[in-house]
Input
Amino acid sequence: MGLSLSQILTLLAIVLPLGAVPSRAMVGRWGQEAAAQAGRLLGVLDLACQARVRVLCLDAIFLHRVPVLMAIEPPSMAWMAGQRSPDRRGERGREVITHWPCLEHVIAAGGQGLERGVKLANAARCAQGEAAETVSRSTMTMGLDVFHTQRERERVVQRQWKHAERQLETASQADAKVARYQRQGRDPRGVSGVAGRAWRKAERLIDQAGKAQEAVQQIDAALSWFDAKGRLYCRQPAQAELDAACQQLQGDCWSKVKRLLSDERTLHHLDRLHDHLTSAVSAPGLRDALTRLWYVNDQMQQAPGDACMRLRQLVVFEHVLGERLEPQWQSAYRRVDELLRHAVRARSAVECVNSVVRMHQGRHRQVSQGLLDLKRLYWNCRIFREGKRKGKSPYALLGLNLPSSHWWQLLQMAPEELEQKLLTQ
Output
């Protein structure tokens, strides 16, 4: 929970008799023993999860100037790696990635270390395939994080609006100076010219910020899954909209945003989703109808009463269309629903876990590897209290059946006992 040893002692002093309160050193030793046990158990649990992890969100954060490589499985929010590292080079990222042999896709912010780590891991896979004289496993793909791109463009837009607001304030002060000169009977022609130039500059900055805001909204729409008509985006129309929006972004402040939007990996989430949908439903007409039906159902859950009634009429129409295209369309729709619900285009999952880990940074002088392991075991066993994952733990959402769902009971088991019980399932 991110508590320090002194805070733990304070809580124990409330609930325990005076003579039963342990010393600070004793509590520290208990924590170290639990952390070591958690590390041994995670070695067994990670092996059991290897075949289940196909997508990972990667990030590198700093805890007291020490880089920690983070890896989260997005659909389940399972914390798969929290590894302290001396640096952020590609070799460190490769060590984390190669631990998951079934990994197919990686989502990262585009840092050079993680990008090089993916390349090294792919090269190692090819080398293993050649050494074994077998066909190597498919190479991992890497997509740029949409969350990071969105944060960057929002930062630039906010800076432009603040600049325009400051110029408006300057123009208002110039107007006030002109009015003061007129009250005093002084010649206001000089300050009137300054006020006019200030207002023209303010209008220019407001227009520039407004156009940038419209371009950002167009970018947000192009980076989503569906267009305004409910059709699933493809790479070509989405990239065309991104290019059109980038032409409206003027100034050097947009250079990083333009570079990210022009990167081929930015829209890789669309390519991957279309490949999976094509494998699930081969008929193009049926596939388009089912994706449209999924979109309408999703919108109907969020729409108010009147709009919900109109969407229900569309759902009935899509049902009729699906039955005409394929009598057994329900099974195909279940496959499409599974793919669309688990589609990932951003690494917001790893950002959520990063905020949880940083609680310890504020309370502990250093966050050791043992403390990260203990926190990771607790996180993966805890049950979500709200949201779409409510009532399940990350390990349960990943499909791992543990002998005990409580992290403390799991911590009391020997690694050999846990491994045997997982093998017998």
